[in-house]
Amino acid sequence: MRNLLSGVRLQKENPTFLVAQYKALSSQIPVLYILLIINALAVAITHIRTAPMWLALYVPIGLSIFCVFRIVWWQIHGQDSISAHRAYRVMLRTIVFAGVLTVAFGAWAVALYQYGNAYQQGQIAYFLVVTGISCVFCLMHLPAAALLTTAITFSFMVVTFMVSGNSVFVATATSVIFLTFPFIRVIDSYFRNFAGLVRLTEELVDKQTEAERLILVNGRNALQDQLTGLANRRSFFRELQDLLQQRPDEPPIVGLVDLDGFKPVNDVFGHAAGDLVLKQTAERFVALMSGKGTIARLGGDEFGVIFPCDLGRDCVSELGQAFCAALREPYDVPGGSIRISGSCGIVVPEGGGHTAEQLYEKADFALYQVKSRRNGSVEFFSHDLEEILQQRHLIELELQSDNFARELSLEYQPIVDLDDGHVVGFEALARWSSARLGRVSPDAFVPAAERTAVIGKMTRILFAEALQALSVMPSPLRMSFNLSARDICDHETSMALLAMIHTAKIDPRRIEFEITETALLSDFDTAYEVIGLLRAAGITIALDDFGTGFSSLSHVHRLEFDKIKIDKSFVMQFDRDVRCMNITRSVANLSRNLGITSVAEGVESAAIAEALRAFGVRLAQGYHFSKPLRLHDAIAFAEASETDVEARRMANA
């Protein structure tokens, strides 16, 4: 009964429930009025000849006219969108009307009771009962009105029949008294179910609203970078595709901006500082765009740009330079001030027929070119780059052919001891003579193999040939073999290489794996594990191209390399650039202090070889000693060097 008692009072503090009550009543009250009119007119017709005309006909007609007006009102306004305040007023008025009409119809029925025979009096009883039941079922959504009409109707009936002196009517009145309680329970049960349904509907609406909100948030998140608030990669490509569909003959100008030197920020200052740099970078780029075009974060430290369609090539170039200049401005982060730089690759497409992926690839290729020169400026995709890119596609296509494995081979460049000139080993250099493309440079096909995931297969093929070559070389000689970034970050490849060594019955101490610092940057933790595994097997590990990557000293310290190879870009300019000479001397001193053997690449003259030896560099390779050789020539070269060393030793004895 608690719900019923609470329902008697209109819940003004619950707007949703008030509106729900109003909507439920709007469909039930017209039915109630129709039943009242029909029943009242039926009673009036049977009493025209026995009761005064004003009582038998005029009173019920007047009451019926009022009911008709109420029916019309509910039909017009019942389906209106209504506020909770107005619903409260309407239901309050409905309770009043229910009480007034019930009293009016009840008083009229009691007044007619004294006229007519027993059958007509029975009809009066029927009218009061039906009126009460109709009010109960039609006003259950408004318990105050339902209880009020039930109480008034049954009270008129009980009082009238109790004083009638008719035992049948007295018994009927007594039954009605007991019938009142089940009716109250029915009203209570119905209202409780109605209130629960309203709450459930409200909860479902809330859940649907929350689901729609989450869908909206997820949709926004799916197209927005959460760190910077910029458009993300998906949004960038979607907009690019839309622009290409809208104006296929006027494709947009696309640019890519990449931060140079960003990874050391994370390594030195932490990822929180790196995130701050990315956020500030986004703010600077947005300010430069001035609300035009699109700037997006594509991932990591790479940003994509869709330039405004009204910008010419010169303006685009200036904006690209502005991006790079903005990156050179210092960043204030907890722990210090950071300076980085950036490079920008731009494609200005000509004609139609472009796809979003093609534009991205061309801008990325232009970015790659400018980053390879390390000048942190802007590079436009040109016809020359188009030819290079087409050649790259041809290479990638040929890498998938069945002939690729048969066309691979190795050449061997001697590594010489600068003290006496004898050969200590060879570096195995990959060669590819394609039936379609001719001789392809390793600088072209090795990166292509990494991009197309062929590198693992290529490594196994070449390493098998290297092991075969090592098996026929004199036992003191060692073999140096290059591993790519994918190789050094792949446990499966490392295990396969160790298995191949075991199968070939080669002493692992005769094998040296060279890795570049760039390879370490891709996944240092995995590379650390793989290098530890290889060193545990007795294999020597050399850091290749030292000085051309980032954080080299950190890597040397953590990975405990056995050798450091001084990059040929320093050695080849040794006698022409004082800075290159100083760098070479510093690396040699570092290696000596750490107890690490240093190897100089790109030695092209006796003077450079002698200077390197004076700096403390022990091993060297380059065209001064020999170009890369086929296997039988390499073995012959090593044997000849041993003969020369022995001859010099005998001459000096």
UniProtKB/TrEMBL annotation:
Residues 392-642 form the EAL domain. Keywords: Membrane, Transmembrane, Transmembrane helix. PROSITE patterns: EAL, GGDEF. The chain crosses the membrane at residues 31-48, 54-73, 94-113, 125-149, 156-184. InterPro entries: Cyclic-di-GMP_PDE-like, EAL_dom, EAL_sf, GGDEF_dom, Nucleotide_cyclase, Rev_trsase/Diguanyl_cyclase. Gene3D superfamilies: 3.30.70.270, EAL domain (3.20.20.450). It comes from the Bacteria. Residues 250-383 form the GGDEF domain. This is EAL domain-containing protein. It comes from Rhizobium calliandrae.
